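Lab meeting, action items carried over

1. Structure of the two-component assembly. Owner: GW. Status: complete.
Input record:
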Amino acid sequence: MIKRLLQMMLVLFVVSVIVFLMMSFTGDPVFMVIPIDSTAAEIEQARRLLGLDQSLFSQYWIFLSNLLQGDFGRSYVFRQPAMDLILERLPATMEMVVVAMGIATVIAIPLGVYAGANPNRAASRSIMAASLFGISLPGFWVGMMLIFFFSVRFQFLPSSGRGETIEVLGLRLSIFTADGWSHMILPAVTLALATLAIILRITRAGMMEVMRQDYIKFARAKGASRRHILFAHGLKNALIPVVTIFGLQLGDLIAFATITETIFAWPGTGKLLIDSIYRGDRPVIVVYLMLTAFIFVVINFLVDIVYTLIDPRITVK
Amino acid sequence: MAEPLLDIRGLQTHFHTFGGLVKAVDGVSFDVKAGEIVGLVGESGGGKSVIGFSIVGLIDPPGKIVGGEIRFDGRDIAKLDERAMRRVRGREIAMVFQDPMTSLNPVYTVGRQMDEVLRLHTDLDKAARRARCIRMLEDVGISEADKRLDAYPHQFSGGMRQRVVIAIALLAGSRLIIADEPTTALDVTVQSQILKLMRRQVEDTGAAMILVTHDLAVVSEMADRVVVLYCGRVIERGLTDEIIANPAHPYTRGLLDSIPRIADRQHRLRQIPGTVPDIRSIGLGCSFRARCSRAQSLCAERSPDLAHVRGSLDAACHFPLEEAAR
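Predicted assembly:
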């Protein structure tokens, strides 16, 4: 357990070095913050003010020691702490991702179990064929098609924004209002589609493997019902790869819902990232990437714990 | 005489494969009386296991029972629908599988897998079910049963797991146990323990047992009667003692001769020449003729029917072996 925590810290440290180095190769940010008609002296002054005149190593050292003290730097553009900017928008992204993962899981698992247990039926083949669309259709196209049909053609659901939000436990959330839901549905479905298809296919592959095992036949010989055999005996044994993919997809959606958020003008962190890249707002990008790495590390850790809950033969080292 | 507990008549289980129709079980008849142990013997591919799975209705496509009757306690269970059959499985007829390493679900405790049977087939409450599971585990020789109930299968050795599987099979008070090669995957020292245990349990509960095995030595130790299968057909059946002492069918003789004897170190161990033929390509005549030293032209023309030979022995052979003076 201790070893595991040290490993996680090491990962985050390495990520911080890579992120910092990459950022310093992406041009001189001083030109992003000064007026166009600045004199050479003013540029020099701004550079000193931002600490950009120091060596790369000491810049990193300042960055790291501030980081460890909880100071994640300030946005060049908003003059606010970069972390605050991100945290302000995180609830919007999170609730969209949670709804998307919920939709994906609730649909994918039963269909995957069915398709895996009855691989030769026409319905299973149709499910598998349909899942190929889910994997291969690009998110931006699906998003635009949904907007075209549901917002433009039928004027049934709004195409952009987050709708009405209310404060719950200090977070501004929209999943507790009807208006919020109507705004949520399209982006969440767009985001869910690829994940749904992947989880479905992984579940099916696992179930096909598991259904051949002797313990399934033994359970049948006990007189257990088909449903009990599929979901209690079969699914639990097929779940390890499903949980792995679930964790990866979850992190991926939280960190990189950028395209979907842009299409639906969803005021989440993905949109902040894109805007910050355009503006060359280095501190925000750096903090964003660090936070992403942190989220992935935590999710992977949780996934490993879930493994041990599913399969008693696995222990967390 | 009372009606037998299980009476199989002309059972045919066929598999429609890409390579053609495989008649895995082709007109098999035998019966099992209450409290009796019947051994089903033969080489791999003889259709032994398929018979076991046919009885409990667990033949999956492309396999199908295409003919015959499986009368259990007077009714033909081959005709039951899946729902009705589920009440027979585990309650009336239980199975023990070959490999204890794979027949228990690795993600559930042993206790939960035992409890499942009682939940399905009895109205007992939780405490009563647990008490019964503990007693059953003790009966099959697992100490500290109370603690072991909460252990997972991977925490048991192979022999212990097979004890658990047997406990599960006996738990609901089934009247017929089908044991499919129950000791094949176990160490030799554990084998005899498990066999003794099964024999004692069958005697104690009054259940009948079908013991599916390729091992005639096991059968001679355990079974009251033996049914010898070859290429999906019964080629000989009778009381165990008679078959072991004086088989009527050359194939059974061959099987017996291929058991090593410690006293006899003078001679090379005899074996049956050749291998089991592809069931799809037997055609007319006796399926054993190609490997039989006594085969004559008649054997290639007409398939022999099962007929009474002597004593309790029936054999499907045109030229059955005479009683040897030994």
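2. GW to write a short summary for the group page. Key points so far: DSSP finds 13 helices and two strands in chain A. The longest helix of chain A spans residues 82-117.
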